[in-house]
Amino acid sequence: MSQVHLFDRTTDLLKVTMDIRSRRHLLLVGNIANQDTPGYQARDISFKDELARALKAPSRDRLDRTEGVLTVNTDETVGNDLNTVNIELEMQKLASNTGNYNAVASMVGWKYRMMGDSISGEGR
């Protein structure tokens, strides 16, 4: 049975992007909090490739199931304690992710304002 969608594909994409950016924020903050934990391996979410595949799919169902891929940094050992958190890199990722989240949130707000204006007739 086909699912009924209230919003367009762009709105769905923005929702998925915000969800994944929120999850990534939690992972990055966790990395920063564990910078002194021996043996801790930094984690991140990669979703660029999965999102590109979902957008090419003919059905919206694939986009609805896009979650990103958890990656663990095992390559870079920062200290003798086998901890792979590079605090400068994690802070940079966190700032970038926050900026991207805020940009997407602004786009969502803009789309909802446009819909509200259309419903109320103010967009004429």
From TrEMBL:
Chief location: other
Quaternary structure note: The basal body constitutes a major portion of the flagellar organelle and consists of a number of rings mounted on a central rod.
Protein keywords: Bacterial flagellum, Cell projection, Cilium, Flagellum
InterPro entries to which the protein is assigned, alphabetical: FlgB
The protein, known as: Flagellar basal body rod protein FlgB
Domain of life from the UniProt record: Bacteria
UniProt cross-references to PANTHER family, sorted A to Z: FLAGELLAR BASAL BODY ROD PROTEIN FLGB (PTHR30435:SF12), FLAGELLAR PROTEIN (PTHR30435)
Reported function: Structural component of flagellum, the bacterial motility apparatus. Part of the rod structure of flagellar basal body.
Homology family: Belongs to the flagella basal body rod proteins family.
The organism's taxonomic lineage, starting at the top: Bacteria, Pseudomonadati, Nitrospirota, Nitrospiria, Nitrospirales
Gene Ontology process terms (BP): bacterial-type flagellum-dependent swarming motility
Compartments reported by the entry: Bacterial flagellum basal body
A single GO cellular-component term on record: bacterial-type flagellum basal body, rod
